[in-house]
């Protein structure tokens, strides 16, 4: 097997997905230089939704002060720009699923730093509608969820939530329409209810925009007797 890989590497040397430079033997998917240039979100951020805050003197952002969201805690790894944006585009639209390893690794580092995530006992990806999954061939949130599940040793249940409505992409809508767009878009899969009942769920997605999707998933799960829902996303737009 190794011999075959070595032979393929010799004929088609692996290159960095971002800068296209030839990878060194210890590098995987992207080169160390591109990896080090991924911008990471740093505190202060809203202790509920994870959005960056202008000052450390406040604990929650303006939106979270007004409303208590169903998803009680969300963290994002990067702002949606530069290398992180590039990785997301490759993952979602170019079939470069190896990028889930890089994004997943960063998410795991963030999760391990925060005590609150230790309560999570099941991982759920934000589901795509079956039509979208068929077109794309995979659900990128599920790929990220798999990375987390293996490293954190927390079971992944990919089909506990089902997207029953094919909604237009959130990114194409003005922010005030996004909550309505995903309203009642999800249901709990009755056949999986025992796997999530009374559990603290870690909900995984690639991009957070207004948080409408994560919160609608959380609202649906809490109605299905889930104890609590925390979220983790690769990027916050
Ligand atoms: Zn590179
Ligand atoms: Zn907030």
Strand and helix map with partners:
Layout: H1 2-11, H2 32-36, H3 62-66, E1 73-79, H4 82-93, H5 99-113, E2 122-125, H6 130-136, H7 140-152, E3 161-163, H8 175-182, E4 186-188, H9 193-196, E5 200-208, H10 212-223, E6 228-236
Parallel strand pairs: 1-6, 2-5, 5-6
Antiparallel strand pairs: 3-4
The structure holds zinc ion (ZN) (2 copies).
Describe the protein in words.
- The N and C termini lie far apart (41 Å).
- With 237 residues, this protein is of the alpha/beta class.
- The mean pLDDT is 92.
- The protein contains 10 helices and 6 strands.
- It has one domain (43-236): Rossmann fold (3-Layer(aba) Sandwich), CATH 3.40.50.
- A 4-stranded parallel sheet has the order 1-6-5-2, sandwiched between helices. It has a two-stranded antiparallel ribbon with strand order 3-4.
- Bound molecules: zinc ion (2 copies).
- One zinc ion is lined by residues 46, 48-49, 51, 60-61, 63-64.
Radius of gyration: 18 Å
- Indicate the percent of residues in helices: 25-40%
Strand-residue fraction?
Answer: 5-15%
The biggest beta sheet reads: 4 strands, parallel
Instruction: Fill in the CATH topology.
Output: Rossmann fold
Second CATH tier, the architecture: 3-Layer(aba) Sandwich
Secondary-structure element series: HHHEHHEHHEHEHEHE
Arrangement of strands in the largest sheet: 1-6-5-2
How far apart lie the N and C ends?
Answer: 41 Å
User: Which small molecules are bound?
Assistant: zinc ion
- Number of domain modules: 1
Give me the count of strands. 6
| CATH class call | Alpha Beta
Shape: globular
Unreliable segments of 5+ consecutive residues: none
Average of the residue pLDDT scores: 92
């Amino acid at each position: 097997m190794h011999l075959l890989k070595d032979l393929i590497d010799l004929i088609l040397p692996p290159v960095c997905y971002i800068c296209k430079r030839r990878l060194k033997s210890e590098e995987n998917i992207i080169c160390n230089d591109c990896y080090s240039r991924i911008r990471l979100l740093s505190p202060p951020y809203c202790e509920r939704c994870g959005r960056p805050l202008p000052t450390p003197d406040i604990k929650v952002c303006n939106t979270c002060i007004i409303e208590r969201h169903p998803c009680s805690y969300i963290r994002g790894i990067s702002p949606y720009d530069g290398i992180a944006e590039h990785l997301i585009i490759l993952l979602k639209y170019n079939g470069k699923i190896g990028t889930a390893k890089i994004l997943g690794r960063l998410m795991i580092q963030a999760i391990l730093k925060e005590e609150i995530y230790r309560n999570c006992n099941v991982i759920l990806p934000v589901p795509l509608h079956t039509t979208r999954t068929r077109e794309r061939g995979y659900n990128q949130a599920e790929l990220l969820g798999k990375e987390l599940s293996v490293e954190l040793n927390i079971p992944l249940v990919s089909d506990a939530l089902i997207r029953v409505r094919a909604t237009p992409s959130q990114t194409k809508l003005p922010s005030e329409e996004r909550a309505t767009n995903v309203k009642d878009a999800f249901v709990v899969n009755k056949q999986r209810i025992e796997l999530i009942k009374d559990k603290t769920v870690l909900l995984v997605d690639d991009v957070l925009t207004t948080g409408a999707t994560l919160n609608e998933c959380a609202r649906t799960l809490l109605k299905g007797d889930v104890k609590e829902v925390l979220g983790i996303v690769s990027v916050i737009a």
